Amino acid sequence: MVSTAHSSNCSYTVLLRRLGCELEPEPMLGELGPSRPDFLVTLPNGTEVYVEAVVANGKSDEKRRRDAILGVLYDYINDNLISPKFFWRIEIVEVGNQPPRSKAVVSALQRHADTLDWAELSTHWNASIQDESGQWRLQALAIESNGWVFRFSPIPKKPAAFSKEGRPLGILPMEAGWSITKNQLRAQISKKRKQHGTLDRPLVLAINAIQGDVDDEDFIGAVYGSEVVYVQCGSDGRPIQGKLSRARDGAWLDNKGTKHEHMPYVVGFQQLCPTNVALAKVCLYINPHITLDENLLMPKLPRLMPAQTCLNQIPGSSLAEIFGLPEGWPREGEANEV
Predict the structure, then answer these.
(1) What are the sequence ranges of the domains in the chain?
(2) pTM for this entry
(3) What does the alpha-carbon distance between residue 17 and residue 10 come to, in Å, rounded to a whole number?
């Protein structure tokens, strides 16, 4: 399985080369310290910048840890459970502190699967597919392991699918939660800037936000501050007028003043992956608190820069245009051509 971070770095590399840049991976900083940014990038005009590539997934550390644990279990079930006549719906009843014992879970589920009568369950399933109290539901099995409790419910396959190979897990748990994309973006900027300390060239952070509901405001709020309304009240305490503004909680400015002056901009990607290049959004979010050297800007990419009362969007090329992708890409067989 290719990690999201590795996939993003590959996409960044290809994009930078498409923009006419030259790359040196993980350059040595010498006397500046042991830290090594991901790339030393030479722009087409000869200007050099360091680029650090990171991924923001909108998940808390606890959620990432739990997803990693469940990913191991799901992969083990899909690789080892023999279930030619049933898919399985898995639900999480209780969450444990230690990883569940995948082998024990599959052994218990296999013993249960071997006892099921496909003809009987198929009849009940077709008669009451939405009935949570139906007979098929009574064949669900609860399995406990290291504090985790899972409920597995069989879903009868159609006879034509009996001989087809495929993953037994058909329905995974749906877990809702608050996205922390904006806070994570802001934290990544501070973390990477501190990690590399004093540099001899500007540092550019390329952040790929992969959360499903990420939007422009996540990046804008992270770098320029959260959107707030300041209300002026009269002598009687009633509001007179409101003014839309930005709080001093962004990457470039907080209550202590400006920061990260050595970082001229952030490159923000939304849901960038090799098969989604044509749809992914990209923008340079310019640091408004420094004198911008135009030679540092990556060519062709759209950019955003705040003015006194608004945000100025300077258009550029889309990723589909930069990669020369046809409309409707990817079609079958084209995803590996980028």
Answers:
(1) 4-58+179-337, 76-171
(2) 0.63
(3) 11
